[in-house]
């Protein structure tokens, strides 16, 4: 592991993202929602490390809070997908036969289905929200986990 520089760089980046997501309230200098129109489109400075946007919101704070939301989506989606994938994969492995063949055919269809189209359908049916992103990620990750267990 120590000889693989890319693995170390990846570990450092992931560690920074996790640390940032956990300690967002202490790292972010301003609220990500706070608008201050007189300070719109400011260049980076000691008060606004990445500057401000057209509404005067601190870009650094918005990025840090975005890391927290991304971390939540990743953890929730992965956890639920793993649980669903293990349950369905275990049922398929235990019963085998016809059920296993049906799951394999279903997974082949799901793998052939474009994921971007699946994402658009989910957003159209459920609406654009954090929950729809989590559901979409659960389905995509669950498909991958089930497919690895049955094939």
Automatic annotation (TrEMBL):
One of the Pfam families matching this protein, by short name: OppC_N
Record key words, sorted: Cell membrane, Membrane, Transmembrane, Transmembrane helix, Transport
Domain ABC transmembrane type-1: 67-151
GO cellular component entries: plasma membrane
Any one biological process term the GO annotation gives: transmembrane transport
Transmembrane segments: 6-28, 73-97, 109-130
Keyword Ligase in record: no
Membrane topology: Multi-pass membrane protein
Localization, UniProt: Cell membrane
PANTHER family the UniProt entry points to: D,D-DIPEPTIDE TRANSPORT SYSTEM PERMEASE PROTEIN DDPC-RELATED, OLIGOPEPTIDE TRANSPORT SYSTEM PERMEASE PROTEIN APPC
Protein name: ABC transmembrane type-1 domain-containing protein
Species this chain originates from: marine sediment metagenome
